[in-house]
Amino acid sequence: MTQAIEIHNLSFSYEPQLPVLKVADLTIPRKTMTLLYGPSGSGKSTLLKILAGLLPKYGGQLDPGSEISLKATEAAMMFQDPSLQFAMDTPWHEAEFALENLQIPPVEMPARIQAAFATVEISHLAHRQFATLSGGEKQRAALAVIIAMQKPVILLDEPFASLDPVNRKRLLQQLQTQVEAGKTVIIADHDLSNYQAVNPNVIQFGTDHQTQVLTSQAVRQLLVAANQQPVIPAKPAAQFPAILTGTNLKITQPNQVLIDQAHFQLPANQISLLTGESGSGKSTLLKVLAKLGTYQGSLLYAGQELRKYSARRWGRKCGLVFQHAADQFLNVTVAEELALSQKQGRHPYFTPANLQNALTKLGLAALTDRVVYSLSGGQQKKLQILVMLMMGQPLLLLDEPFTGLDAKSAQAIRELIDACQATAPATILVVSHQLNGLADWVDCHFKLQNQHLVDRGEVLA
Amino acid sequence: MNPSLKLALVLLISLEVSFTQKLGINLILIMIGLILILKTRPSGLTLVRLIAIPAIPAATLAITIGAFSPGHDWFFAAVLASRIYVYVCLGSAVTLATTPLELARSLEQNCHLSAKFAYGTLAAINLVPRIISAVKTIRAAGQMRGLTLSFWSPQLYFKAILSALTWSDQVAQAMESHGFVDDQARTTAHQIRITAWDWVILVVSLALVQGGLIVLP
Predict the structure, then answer these.
(1) Of A93, A98, A214, A246, which sits most exposed with the smallest number of CB within 10 A?
(2) Do B171 and A87 touch (CB under 8 A)?
(3) In B, which residues are within 8 Å of A291 by CB distance?
(4) Distances in Å between the alpha carbon of A13 and those of A20, A38, A55, A200?
């Protein structure tokens, strides 16, 4: 139990001869926090799923010579997408289900669940339906269930992807308490901000499918660099002509008013950033703008009320890049997805040469025969953004476009959007927790707080 | 009443009603069903749906038998129409008064149904809201790519089936990640008991239905 987790000669592949993860020798010390860090598609999630015993059971092959000194029953894993981890209807029922499976005596359950929920500060959400929770709230609920299970090893796959910095710090602190209580915490993350306070071991995953344990000095450098929170300089939205105007706008959810605002305007043909705490209603606002939700009051696009547009007409005006990349795809292979956007899309930038160039820059050029659902999370994200950019709607909404992307891929996406904007400018609204690299990219910045969209732009002297 | 016994009672009564032609007992069962439904304080819309939607098959059946069959047997027509309402009212009385979780727990504990089946089905039921929103999302995704996916569009169903396939895998992974192992013993957070009172209700109800079937027209 007490010795470290040892991995030897591990090789995992989905297709024969094409390993997606190779680990020659790796030692993960117990009772510490270890961070698996690397670009998207480098095999971090795969390693976690192997440790949790979900792979190769649910796909792929593990090389027969692979050795892992960890029993899958010792570990509890939290998925990248928390909404995929719930089989019950509320957090409380889910926790009960998990403890029943672990054969915990029923009398011990309430106290154990309450303690875990209190640790993650979601006691007030215990009996809410999952469908009414925001992405960040679901993530905390998923963590609470994992903590209630009290396994010696906790595996987390991108646990903070939909959390704002405040909640991120809070959760990290809570994980640190778990480590102090003798748990082994292994986290896969591509974003290192806020980790400095907890001082983890870092294992770097390369694109060549190799892993490397970083020295403490290299770790410190990485963490310090990641911690520098960028300041986002932005211009006031009012200095641009408005394309979308909200008056007495009210957006509600069961039990909650998300937005209640007398006046709001979105500047035409600029890139606007929308930030705010998790659960504040950013995704819901985008859904309303895409006509996937309802609103009270008035929302005028180019002088016409949004609810008067037919779904078909609005689809030509407004594109939404969903938070879940897989939701966007309508076909099977990468080539078919690209063909559909080439046929239906109208963006003048995407000439065959420019498209090929974009595919190369995004690292998708060699993947055209792949089934879209077999791509890594990051590759799906890049393809998703590309096929939506090709459509060329004058209003483009992006919900967490940088989730699961490493710094280089995120930069490539921003450059592609810039190139599109230079050819034919569109109004772009980006929701993102990930602020690195956005400083010189966005024109305007709104923050959703206290049910208001506050313009953070300042007139620079 | 215990959810499994409640379900068994309703199934037994429905089966009996299917093989008899008694209008009186049907009307009494509909009344009892409605009272049980009203006790759960359903929304007005639910009530209207419960009454209006079965009216279509009920009326069709009644008119076919009464007006177009050789005997013009309007009594038999009324029996068939009321039978549809018996099924709907008794069925709704069970589903409105029992959550799927209670039923799954009861089936697992009282009927010793395999936990995999009970919780797998429950997980599928809990997916329903996600299925509805997924269909909306797929149609919007199509709309934004210049495709109008109607409700009979093969592409919509292809994508929906694809989502269902991934979900079934994901539900299995979700259950496993929370410690579920097939055929392994589990404890129960909430004991669902079958009390003597449950048996009394079951036996007395069945006896009353038998009596009604003999005495009433």
Answers:
(1) A214
(2) yes
(3) 140
(4) 5, 18, 10, 28
Are B87 and B151 members of one domain?
no
Instruction: Give strand pairing partners of A23.
Output: A10
Residue the block writes with tokens 């732009």: A457
Q: What is the ipTM of this complex?
A: 0.85
Query: Distance (Å) from the C-alpha of residue B158 to the closest C-alpha of chain A?
Result: 9
DSSP lists the bridge partners of residue A5 as: A28
Is there a contact between A424 and A255 (Cβ–Cβ < 8 Å)?
Answer: no
Within this chain, do residues B23 and B75 fall inside the same structural domain, yes or no? yes
- B89 inside domain: yes
Under the banding of pLDDT at 50, 70 and 90, the label for residue A281 is confident
Is the same domain home to B173 and B76?
A: no
B204 in the same domain as B144: no
Residues of A in contact with B142 (CB under 8 A): 315, 330
Do B100 and B195 share a structural domain? yes
Residue B42 main-chain phi, psi, to 5 deg: -75, 165
The amino acid sitting at A99 is L
User: At A398, which amino acid appears?
Assistant: L
| Residue B28: inside a domain | yes
- Regarding whether B74 and B17 lie in a shared domain, the answer is yes
pLDDT digits (tens, 9 = 90+) for A384-419: 999 999 999 999 999 999 987 888 999 999 999 999
Structure token pair of residue A447:
């923050």
- Domain of B130, in residue numbers: 115-177
In a domain, B182, yes or no: no
Its pTM stands at 0.77
The token pair at A247 is: 């008056």
- Are B81 and B58 in contact, with CB atoms under 8 Å apart? yes
- Give dist(CA A339, CA B8) in Å, integer: 54
Write down the H helix ranges in A20-164.
44-51, 91-101, 109-119, 135-149
Q: What are the b/e assignments for A6-34, b being 16+ CB within 10 Å? A: ebeebbbbeeeeebbbbbeebebebebbb
Shared domain for B130 and B91, answered yes or no, is no
Edge-first strand listing for the sheet containing A318-321:
A318-321, A395-399, A427-431, A271-276, A444-449, A452-455
A459 to chain B, closest Cα gap in Å: 36
How far B35 CA sits from the closest chain A CA (Å)? Answer: 28
Nearest chain B residue to A321 by CA distance is: B141
Q: Using DSSP bridges, classify how beta strands A211-213 and A201-205 pair: parallel, antiparallel or unpaired.
A: antiparallel
pLDDT in tens, A306-318: 999 999 999 999 9
B186 in a domain, yes or no? no
Site from B122, B136, B145, B175 to mutate, A interface, most A CB atoms within 10 angstroms: B145
Is residue A298 classed as helix, strand or coil in its secondary structure? strand
Q: What's the domain count of chain B?
A: 2
- Residue B173 sits in the same domain as residue B74: no
Confidence of residue A461 (pLDDT cuts 50, 70, 90): very low
